[in-house]
Known about the structure:
The chain has about 350 residues and is an alpha+beta fold.
Amino acid sequence: MAxxxxxxxxAREFSTVVVACCPTELPALAGEDPKAARRGFRVVxxxxxxxxxxxxxxxxxxxxxxxxxxxxxxxxxxxDHFTEMPLAPGSQVCVRVDWERRFDHMQQHSGxxxxxxxxxxxxxxxxxxxxxxxxxxxxxxxxxxxxxxQVAAIEQSVNEKIRARLMVSVRELSPxxxxxxxxxxxxxxxxxxxPVRVVTIEGVDASMCCGTHVSNLSDLQIIKILGTEKxxxxxxxxxxxxxxxxxxxxxRSHESEKALTSLLKCGAEDHVQVVTKLQSSVKLLxxxxxxxxxxxxxxxxxxxxxxxxxxxVVALHRKDGDSEFMNIIANEVGAEGx
Length: 338
């Protein structure tokens, strides 16, 4: 079954009917202790505007008649909405989606489809999984390494396709349709029911997917690939941002650049050179300081032994001393039976 959120990913509110509402324990949210159960209600609607998590995409947030929805999960052909307030079965309700979160997820998910297709077409790099993260997303590629040149080529190609304003369309096919075998995908969930949903990027890709997507690549605005990192079992994670996340990343980078310019008293083009010089100076100072502390420790130890009240027991506290400084003193004193 396709929900309203899948039929029209751009809709921001939707009227439907409450089918069921029963007490339950609310699933833990991201970052919460999984054992920290809260009492709440599981609400089932005739249809929903809120996407239940699946296909690597997190669930939506929103409200049902102004009652906040804390989590949405899929159960067969139904979506379970978890709330802290009950809703009356049979009542007509208005569902509103957190649009900023929804559109962000649409941009990242469509961006993933585009990067996955281009990486495979250009270099035969197949995607084995992906994760839509809170700050950045990662595509797991079935390769032990991906070169910087390959990353640059993929980024250039996907942004060319965004500027070409290619259409993104969604079709529903019956599971026994021969065309299903021709589209990319990792198989259907065991509890899948109803038609197979196929997301097509004009002239680029066709793949099975349950997520929410943009209708035109121009809505992605831009894609920035941040680089790669070593993945599991000889695989490589490709890290990327799409759409508004790129603009936020640029804003954060610009603020950091301004702050560094003020601290270092130089232009942004000289930041690396100035910091490199500072690091060299700090290393030299640390080395000189360590040598001086060692000399001082020996001097302190000899002064303690030379004290007229020397009795073999010494108490010493030095606020700015470290373990090496104190150990040198202990060894020097101990060598004379202290």
